[in-house]
């Protein structure tokens, strides 16, 4: 006969995971799925559409726009704080539990840079192939006006994205799924599908590329138990995409 306390604990844990995902990457996956359905039902082809990221809120009022951008970044980090708070219920420190600390800076920076290289160039190649094949929308990673704060805000947005996706989507989620008794292969596949799903707004190339990235990042985390290298890698990738596009979009004519 199953222990009712254990069964109740599992129900509570499952509910907790669904709530955290519903406030973060899970909600993004649902919205992105609806977005790709909306894109596919438009009269124009997918390749003739543009997925715009980091869009200005009030381009005619730069200071108010800056306030909107910073507020969105700060509020976007609340799910990360929630995930760490909930992990603190396990004896110990939630930050240390998932490796979100500065104990191994050389390892974190070095392995993060390597991960960024491993993911970055193939990811760009996959995007170009998917776009040329008609399976992806055009991606415009940075759409802020030419103001002095644009680059710093893009860097902060990259950091926020990386913290949410890696701390919540990898560290928190895989820790909880292990506690629920999931097998490694199932956890990795589930995370990969989730990561791909919340990038579906870009098209099917975005889904496949990020799902593959999800497999790599999940396996890496399960081996080293640190999200800091993943945060470093993701931040480097997004900074290169956001800031690089903002600075070079008029010079790189071959990039759709």
Can you offer a commentary on this structure?
This protein is mainly α. Helices cover 70% and strands 2% of the residues. The protein has ten helices and two strands, in the order ααβααααβαααα. It has helices at residues 4-22, 25-40, 62-76, 78-87, 94-98, 105-133, 150-179, 184-197, 204-224, 228-248, and strands spanning 50-52, 138-140. Helix 3 (62-76) runs parallel beside helix 7 (150-179), helix 7 runs antiparallel to helix 8 (184-197) and helix 8 (184-197) packs antiparallel against helix 9. The radius of gyration is 19 Å and the shape is globular. The model has no long low-confidence stretch (mean pLDDT 92).
What is the topological layout?
Elements lengths: L3 H19 L2 H16 L9 E3 L9 H15 L1 H10 L6 H5 L6 H29 L4 E3 L9 H30 L4 H14 L6 H21 L3 H21 L8
Parallel strand pairs: 1-2
| Number of helical stretches of at least 4 residues | 10
Domain module tally: 1
Taken in chain order, the helices and strands follow as: HHEHHHHEHHHH
Tell me the radius of gyration: 19 Å
* Dominant shape: globular
Q: What is the topology, as strand order, of the major beta sheet? A: 1-2
Main beta sheet strand tally, sense and closure: 2 strands, parallel
Low-confidence stretches: none
Distance between the termini: 60 Å
The averaged pLDDT comes out at: 92
Strand-residue fraction?
A: under 5%
- Helical percent range? over 70%
Structural class: mainly alpha
Number of strands: 2
